[in-house]
Design a protein that fits this description.
Blueprint: H1 6-26, H2 30-53, H3 55-70, H4 88-109, H5 113-137, H6 144-148
């Protein structure tokens, strides 16, 4: 059996209540919310990989990944109380990438950009918690590619 994808981990971490919250923000059903979560996680992963490849932001992304991979495993339910100690460096990195990722998803899906932005804002602490859990499961080894799993960016 293959290991779950990063998107699967984010959906698991998100849980039904937060998925319902996203569905409400988007005025859609749970399936629509799951679709948006998948697109948003793929887009955020792609933006993160791209930022890691650009000299201007590579050091910041590397430091954020190091912080996540050296962190203690999060307590259960951390994502529901605002993320990991405010998320540290990774929170800052993802906050910068959230708006471009949300805009790309909104453009691709035709959903209202403001609603997609709010949904992605809900996702950021969940993504951090999922990254931290993946890092803990891998015993802190590996870089960004290992944490995000296979596959490239969602960019076409």
């Amino acid at each position: 059996m293959s290991e779950p994808s990063f998107q699967d981990d984010v959906l698991t971490e998100l849980g039904d209540d937060r998925l319902q919250e996203i569905a409400g923000l988007l005025d859609t059903d749970v399936d629509g919310a799951q679709e948006l979560v998948g697109s948003s996680v793929a887009e955020l992963s792609g933006e993160l990989r791209q930022a890691a490849a650009e000299p201007a932001s590579a050091d910041e992304v590397r430091a954020a990944v190091n912080e996540v991979t050296s962190a203690e495993p999060p307590l259960q339910g951390v994502a529901t109380v605002g993320g990991l100690a405010a998320g540290g460096l990774m929170s800052g990195v993802l906050a910068k990438l959230a708006k471009p990722a949300a805009n790309a998803v909104a453009k691709r899906t035709g959903l209202p950009p403001a609603a997609v932005n709010r949904a992605v804002d809900v996702l950021v602490p969940v993504v951090i918690a999922a990254l931290t859990k993946r890092a803990a499961a891998k015993k802190g080894g590996g870089g960004l590619g290992d944490l995000l799993g296979g596959g490239g960016s969602a960019k076409k």
